[in-house]
Amino acid sequence: MSGTKRALVTGISGQDGSYLAELLIEKGYEVWGLLRRHSVPENQTSRLDAIGIFSNPNLKLVYGDMTDLPSLIGILKECMPDEVYNLAAQSHVRISFDQPAFTTHADAEGVLNLLEAIKTICPTAKVYQAGSSEMFGNEYDEDGYRRETTPMLPVSPYGCAKLYAYNLCRVYRSSYGMFISNGILFNHESPRRGLNFVTNKIVAGAVDIHKGKINTLALGNLEATRDWGHAKDYVRAMWMMLQHDEPDDFVCAMGEAHSVRDLCEEVFAELDMDYRDYVTQDPRYYRPTELDDLKGDCSKLKDTLGWEPTYTFRTMLEEMVQARL
Fold first, then answer.
1. C-alpha dihedral over 77, 79, 80, 84, to 10 degrees?
2. Is 158 among the catalytic positions?
3. Residue 173: HSE in the Cβ half-sphere, 13 Å Cα cutoff
4. What is the C-alpha separation between 257 and 297, in angstroms, rounded?
């Protein structure tokens, strides 16, 4: 393996982790993936099993936890990565209100653990930290967009934890000269998205209605808008950030906002149905504090790194519907 780049990917069993693992293996990397142990091990590698890389000789999976510093130190000593992609998180915004302490431990303190371990064991490794558009909260610039210079005032425990981690990375970068880049990623989806996220919840519900399995689909706020892209495009942006000659912070977004209602309309129309005949609203799915509108400006990412998305909002949803069918 001499001369082969080695990458450690935390959260490798998630949507982004599985796409990133695919990309890195295609590029000739030896990929180490950090897994949290589940009591049902079949579930934790289902995305990797489905794409046929679980048995790839260039993929090595190890157990560890972002809240367990000794486990991170041990893995880094064994792996000695050239690049570290931190995708591990409690990533559901609504659940962060129900589990704020766990979200903080995993998404904020876990990043502190990882940075300390990297600083001690492999300080020259390039590090990618998965930030989030939720860090902005309801702040935006005069033109309605959010970019790297927009003030950040999160409105959820998840957003707060991600902002803490984002600022930690900036501190470690400036204080210790470490190569750490923050990706400020807006919503990104795919057929591998969990069913508790609104995009795949709508896709799965619409397909089940189409098949006659259920009659209605209950959702929360239909007017909230998001800037939705495809996870496959966004993990490519992550990789590009670590190939740049300088560490930096980059917004990754499509630059257009669509409402949950728009999403329903597109998905149901793909199945020749009218969402208004089936979708209901349930107060249980509303957030205590709503983030009303999200739209990102990724000019810096495009101009600096040459990133361009290959999917549109519509082609992303078409793929998700067809995969579910």
1. -120
2. yes
3. 18
4. 11
State the pTM of this model. Answer: 0.92
Q: Which residues contact 163 (CB under 8 A, 6 or more apart)?
A: 135, 152, 154
Within 8 A by CB and 6+ apart from 296, the residues are 133, 145, 146, 147, 184, 186, 227, 251, 252, 253, 254, 255
Calpha distance 51→73 (Å, rounded):
29
If you average pLDDT over residues 212-221, what whole number do you get?
94
Quick check: helix, strand or coil at residue 170? helix
Q: What is the pLDDT of residue 48?
A: 75
Rounded to whole angstroms, how far apart are CA atoms 60 and 86?
A: 16
**Residue-wise pLDDT tens digits, 286-318:** 766 666 788 999 999 999 999 999 999 999 999
Tell me which of 134, 189, 266, 270 is the catalytic residue. Answer: 134
- Catalytic hit among 132, 133, 156, 181: 132
pLDDT digits (tens, 9 = 90+) for 32-69: 999 987 655 666 666 776 666 667 889 999 999 999 99
- Which amino acid would we find at residue 257? A
Annotated active-site residue in 29, 85, 128, 158: 158
